[in-house]
UniProtKB/TrEMBL annotation:
Mn(2+) binds at residues 138, 161, 163, 165, 244, 246. NCBIfam families: agmatinase, PRK02190.1. The keyword Metal-binding applies. This is Agmatinase. Binds 2 manganese ions per subunit. Signal peptide: none annotated. It comes from Sulfitobacter brevis. Its cofactor is Mn(2+). GO terms for molecular function: agmatinase activity; metal ion binding.
Length: 322
């Protein structure tokens, strides 16, 4: 295929015949699946399923992250023409990647949401695929992690964020996007000794034993040094990567519920995500994109690139395991 195919290709989310390869559909038109992947509920032969979770009940300040999956998909339409930059393989051509659509849930029964999401991710994993999730507020990571822990045991967490999200909360039924990793440690879902948080720049006296690389350390020592430290902690453990878009400074991602100054630059994040190639990643998410607070679309663009890098990290792991 070549750019000239844009004259005839349209709505590749529905009309493309396979799950592999680039797309040259006009970026400004057509159905906006993630990276123009085919929408399907059939996971037969799928390596990676991208799914949206439009949930933002548990926000600290600015709502709107329920619109994040839609905005990230739209922003991603600029990316599927070429292999992702900086990688020595093309994840779009080598692996079967599907857009699995969004999670269906009853917004009137919020208490049912966590189990509904866990079952959704469990279905993806049972089909033999990995998941890349577009959020949604950050609470969604906890129900997702439960499904991963069912399959892999206590999993290592690689967490990019401005906040540690380990504030104490022993009521496991509360839905709160600032306490879910406290609960994940307490319930044995993640292994804190082999987990890392990156970009932190808010006070929390108890990080539950998770290694912290705060934003200042990344600024002072550089992203390459940060990756070396991350890899030393993770080792070869099965790992789940979660990227709260407010890990980035508000100058790079203003459209988020809880912006905090002094954060990572998009360049630092891109270097770290690329250099993490080789970690034993099993799945990941990008959360907290709140498009109503960023009319430029920069935050959604960042979210789309983060999700693409997670795809590449998964592809790198899958290539190594062949």
């Amino acid at each position: 295929m070549a750019l000239e195919d844009a004259k005839t290709q349209i709505d590749q989310a529905f009309t493309r015949e396979d799950l592999k390869g680039p797309s040259f559909e006009n970026a400004f038109g057509g159905a906006t699946s993630f990276l123009r992947r085919r929408y399907t509920k059939d996971l037969t032969g799928v390596d990676i399923a991208v799914t949206g979770v439009p949930f933002d009940q548990a926000v600290t300040n600015r709502p709107g992250t329920r619109l994040g999956p839609r905005a990230i998909r739209e922003a991603s339409t600029l990316q599927p023409y070429d292999p992702p930059y900086g990688w020595d393989f093309d994840v779009l051509s080598e692996f079967a990647i599907a857009d699995y659509g969004d999670l269906a849930f009853d917004y009137g029964h919020v208490s049912q949401f966590p189990d509904t999401l866990t079952a959704h991710i469990r279905g993806i994993l049972d089909a033999g695929a990995a998941s890349v999730v577009l959020g949604g507020d950050h609470y969604i990571s906890f129900p997702i992690l439960k499904a991963y822990a069912e399959k892999y045991g206590p999993i290592s967490l690689l967490h990019f964020d401005a906040h540690s999200d380990t504030w104490p909360d022993d009521d496991m039924t509360r839905i709160d996007h600032g306490t879910m990793f406290y609960k994940a440690v307490k319930s044995g879902v993640i292994d804190p000794a082999t987990s890392v948080q990156v970009g932190i720049r808010t006070t929390n006296p108890d990080t539950m034993g998770v290694t912290t690389i705060d934003a200042r350390e990344v600024h002072e020592k550089g992203p390459v040094a940060a990756v070396e430290k991350i890899k030393a902690v993770l080792g070869d453990r099965p790992t789940y990567l979660t990227f709260d878009i407010d890990a980035l400074d508000p100058a790079y991602a203003p459209g988020t519920g809880t912006p905090v100054w002094g954060g990572l630059t998009s360049a630092q994040a891109s270097i770290m995500l690329r250099d993490l190639a080789g970690i034993n990643i099993m799945g990941g998410d990008v959360v907290e994109v709140s498009p109503p607070f960023d009319t430029t679309g920069a935050t959604a663009i960042a979210g789309a690139h983060v999700a693409t890098e997670i795809l590449c990290l998964l592809g790198a792991r899958m290539r190594k395991s062949k």
